[in-house]
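User: Quick sanity check before I run a bigger batch. Here is a single chain. Can you write out its predicted 3D structure?
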Amino acid sequence: MKKLTKKRKQAAEKLEEGKLYPLEEAVKLVKEVNTANFDASVDTHVRLGVDPRKADQAIRGTVSLPHGTGKTKRVLVFCEPDKEEEAKAAGADYVGLDEYMQKIQDGWLDIDVVIATPAVMPKIARLGRVLGPRNLMPNPKVGTVTEKISEAVADVKKGKVAFKVDKFGIIHSTIGRVSFTAEQLYENAEALYSTLKRMKPASAKGNYLRSVYLASTMSPGIPVDPKTV
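Assistant: Done. Predicted structure follows.
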């Protein structure tokens, strides 16, 4: 069994075994138990009472975090030449088509979000095998296939994040950084949880929010009482 570092052990001792923490308390605690020597990300992991194998229960969507994620996302836009200036003006980091398709096929993936216009989707479909597993393939369901390029880029830059339930029924999402105030983390977390609750499928039976955790990079997870979110 891997031995805990002194820092990690001290962090773990601040948590009460078996306790579910109210969200307001958990966002303060996640800052206290952080053991990283850098501005670590704060993530939430939500286990939903859904069966991801059923199309209507494969939860997927986006949420605009009021305080962003604390990280500037690198955006690539695939579009026609007449839309390139619009994408650049909105703040896209990379804009084009053939050049970036080739770069990705050659192994370049220095990006966080890919946005595309509907017209170029048939052409970039071949990148699905590379972008799909990394959750980077543009998708109309999360607003990354759109004619409104400038709006989509601006939303991402302001803090819009995409989420998707995994095969175990769990949503993983960043809600900020350790440097955020507890109030900022709380408001970001609430924005995500509220969105998830609104997306509850009619066919999902029983308890919907099964478990909720908060954790910063390299630090222990804090179990959150789902009734408080």
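The first helix runs from residue 6 to 13.

User: Great, the batch can go ahead then.
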